[in-house]
Amino acid sequence: MSIINVKRRLQNGHTFSGIVLLMELVFLFLLLCGSAEELDKNNVDSPKLASCSEGSIEKLAEQQTMTIDLPNLPEEAKKMEMVLIKAGSFMMGSSKEEPGRTDFEWPLHKVTITKSFYMGKYEVTQAQWEAVMGRNPSYFHGKPNHPVEKVPWRTCQKFIRRLNALGQGVFRLPTEAEWEYACRAGTETQFSFGDSAENADKYMWWRGNNKLDETKEVGLKLPNPWGLHDMHGNVLEWCSDRWELPYERGTQIDPKGPPSGFSFFFLFTNRVMRGGGIGSRAQDCRSSWRGREQSMDFHYSLGFRLVREYP
Ligand SMILES: [Ca+2]
User: How far is CA 295 from CA 151, 269, 311, in A?
Assistant: First the structure.
């Protein structure tokens, strides 16, 4: 780990356990004072996806992409674009023989996604966050088309509530299964661009091509087969699921993670993050890689992308 990396981690709380413990004590105080209801509003489980009737299926081909109109987004800023991801099945996780595999990855198993959904073509940018929230928390602030970072999972829920209030659809974080389904885009290789990291520079920002350990403008690298950019690398991406250790499991239908769970500090749940980031090794940007952070944690290489429910 480089000196600059260590310095940023100390500044930005990648493992700021002391601060988290203090915040959890504050949470406990609020809980005792009866204020937990407000916090519970942030603890949004994966909501049900919108149903997709047979009639509406016919419209899928006509609505492969859509652009979300954010009222306060500067004209020159990158628009919030969504790509239609059609329902289907895939093999989630990795085989035990896959190079670079970690014990946190799911064993290979079949997953069926029963409802089509829209996925963000890019990670949510600083300008998009600011248009909705009125401020920009990013460590690399002042770069409107870079991904927003330093956004705790819980604050992302606040962003999503405000976005939903604009009346342009129902937005949420992707489930871990939706994220991997969209990342793989029909592929079964280590990356959506193959098994070799030799081509990684064409498709992702990671430790190997980002010596300064800085985020990059979204969409500069080639997309995956379904048109999504930066699924591998740039910022790590929050998913809606609570963290759970992997185990052998049979076929899953729309898995959403465990209904409850607690972190080491017992109050704030660990949530799943995917895709690797600017400081990650290539193998930690593979489609099946998975990691976790506490829902109040934040980091300069941890952001998110959105799902918009279909239609
Ligand atoms: Ca990413």
Answer: 10, 6, 29
Q: What SS3 state is found at 241?
A: strand
Burial letters 14-52, b for 16+ CB under 10 A, else e: bebeeebeebbeebeeeeeeeeeeeeeebebebeebbeb
Question: Average of pLDDT values for 3-14?
Answer: 45
CA distances from 228 to 58, 129, 179, 185, 223 (A): 23, 19, 11, 9, 5
* Distance from the alpha carbon of residue 238 to the mean position of ligand 1, in angstroms: 9
Q: Is the pLDDT of residue 173 over 90?
A: yes
Ligand 1 centroid, distance to 305 Cα (angstroms): 8
Residue ranges per structural domain of the chain:
3-61, 73-309
Q: How many angstroms separate the alpha carbon of residue 56 from the centre of ligand 1?
A: 30
Give the pLDDT score at 211. 85
pLDDT in tens, 242-286: 999 999 999 999 999 998 876 655 567 999 999 999 999 999 999
The token pair that represents 37 in the structure block: 């209801």
What are the tokens at 118?
Answer: 């829209």
Q: What DSSP designation does 232 have? A: S
238 contacts 149 by C-beta, under 8 angstroms: no
33 CA distance to ligand 1 middle (Å): 39
What does the pLDDT look like over 28-77, one tens digit per residue? 444 333 333 333 333 333 322 333 334 444 444 456 999 999 999 999 99
**How much distance in Å is there from the Cα of 123 to the middle of ligand 1?**
6
**Which numeric CATH code is attached to 73-309?**
3.90.1580.10
Of the candidates 186, 180, 181, 229, the one whose C-alpha atom is nearest the C-alpha of residue 82 is 229
